[in-house]
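Question thread 4412

I'm putting together a teaching handout and wanted feedback from people who do this every day. The idea is simple: show students a protein as raw sequence, then show them the structure tokens that encode its fold, then repeat with a second protein so they can compare. Below is the first pair exactly as I plan to print it.
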Amino acid sequence: MRLLLRYSFTLLAAGTVCYVGFLGMPRLAAQARAADSKPQPDVLILIDDERVVGRFVGSSGGSLSFKSDLLGDLTADWSKVKSLQAQGQYAVLGKDLKLRVHADTSNIPQGSLEVAGQTITVRPAGGGSPRTIAVGDAAQVIDQAAFQREVEPPHTSLVRAWTGAITAGASLVQATQQSRTFTGAVNLIRAIPIESNLPARNRTTFNFAVSDGRVLQPNTPTIKTEIVHADAERDQYLNESRVFAFGQLAYDHNFSQGLTLQQNYGGGIGWTAIKRPNETLDVKGSIGYIHQEFSNASQNQSLVASNFGEGFLRKFGGATFTEQLTLTPTWNNLNSWLASANAALNLPVYKRFAFTISMSDGYLHNPSPGFRKNSFQASMGLTYSLK
């Protein structure tokens, strides 16, 4: 009897192992198929035979971008490239191409890439004859999916493509005097197309900044600092040129100048004087309406004004410098002109986080009595990039 039980148990264990193994075979086969279907990395070989493995991002003009598995983001001149094999799908845009929304893209080379001898060979995904284009004749090489999104923008485009940053800083003093200061800013921009190498169509910006401070001391009135600014602007580029029409609005509150609320509405013409992947410069002028409300209500006024300004952005070594300057003459009361200036330097810290140093200056030529014309503030804080 004991021998029979042992024999039965052995058969049951063997059957269980075989059954479990049979059930596991499809999973092992699926894992093997997934490993085989995993995209192969792109391979970049430089003229000194250095081999870089990773992913080809794209190119603009005479340089390309490549994301190395080991070295991170790299930029190299096409003249330094011996060969490139890219497994993804890309679109190669010639220098003479004038790209428009809903344009016919059948003549634009699209597919996987091979580069050798300063010649780009494009192999269509669905087969067909490969096409070649000289590296020197290619203005941009961009991801095919991104390219199609720009040519055929979705109906829900108003909620896409927003980028920007959120900055916050604070200080606290707890002693005989109690001091609390908070600064924050939200800067958003939506530029269409998303690819900066393509001709600009429109741009929307929104900015909000606040600085709030309190100083408390026994038997002394509380000293308050309160500066709030918000603005929005919509730019529409004309005929794929660097000239754009725009409308803007801005709201300001500055307790330090006795300004309860200033409303500024206007529209005009601008020009993108410099447009490079790492540098832009815009200049613009507008005509508009300003309404000012002061703590001294007798000073409240409505003004016909113009806004003349410029905005500059420069990227270098991972850091970003931005600067804006605006001069606003007021035509129906020449004594009430105003100006503003601000600058910020973003220094990368970790991934999307950066350390920001910023300065801003607001000038009212005709503030409330007892208040200074100038309002200057400098702040430092931590910035989180939304993209």
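The second pair follows. I'd like the answer to focus on this one:
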Amino acid sequence: MPAGGGSSRAIGTVPGVRHGGEGGLLGLAVASTYSTDHLLYAYFTAVDGNRVVRMTYIGSSLGTPQPLVTGIPSASIHNGGRIAFGPDGMLYVGTGEGGVKPRAQDLSSLGGKILRITPSGGIPADNPFPGSRVWSYGHRNVQGIAWDSSGQMWASEFGQNTWDELNRIVKGGNYGWPIVEGIGTDSRFINPVAQWPTDEASPSGIAVVDGIVYMAALRGARLWQIDVRGPAAAQPRAWFVGTYGRLRTVVSAPDGSLWVTTSNRDGRGTPRPGDDQILRFTLSS
């Protein structure tokens, strides 16, 4: 059950953000080194495309954004925006193809990809394509990134009209868009481990706890639970169907609970009293 009593406060404004359609301030991340470097990382839409920046946050002061990656395609749709630090200390960036489908298969484009960069914006020497930030490709619109306890990376992805996806991400993998949507038969591409009709998901953020993927659903207005501990994903289970409306992301909290954010004021939901909210749920066996 959700627990109450929390509060929030504004710590600053990120300059240069251009709001519109599915664009805006889309992602935040904090490295494990925050206690010493005081850096926050953000992904947002600017006038010249999507970008990744970092800013200092010391006391109550938010510093000037320092660009790390620019030139990520932007549009009114499919901007991606999820960023997260992996267990290797690198920053992973989920992008969309901005509605231009061929970008997903074009390794010279940053759209329709998962990117991997160093905390200072450099290209790691062990990335799969020399001189490139691209970690995986063939994505339509990556919305969630997380890792399990073994270091395996997972990502959620918006489909078009038929299937939304949960993918097991591997270095250099091609996930098929726009040639394949959902599970296909073309051996060139990596199939999702689970898929949903788009009206049941429109998946956003994910978290992994004890081999269970928790996936927030926007249009589906529910929290999906997918057991991925076996060779194949178990039958997904849905929680809170319609109870809180559109769910934007889910995070594993330090105390073992889940933090889930609602997204009913994004222009596509029906706001409810108190929206939008951060909900806290405790897990039980």
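Top answer:
Good format. For the second protein you could add a caption like this: The mean pLDDT is 95. Residues 31 and 89 are 7 Å apart (CA to CA).
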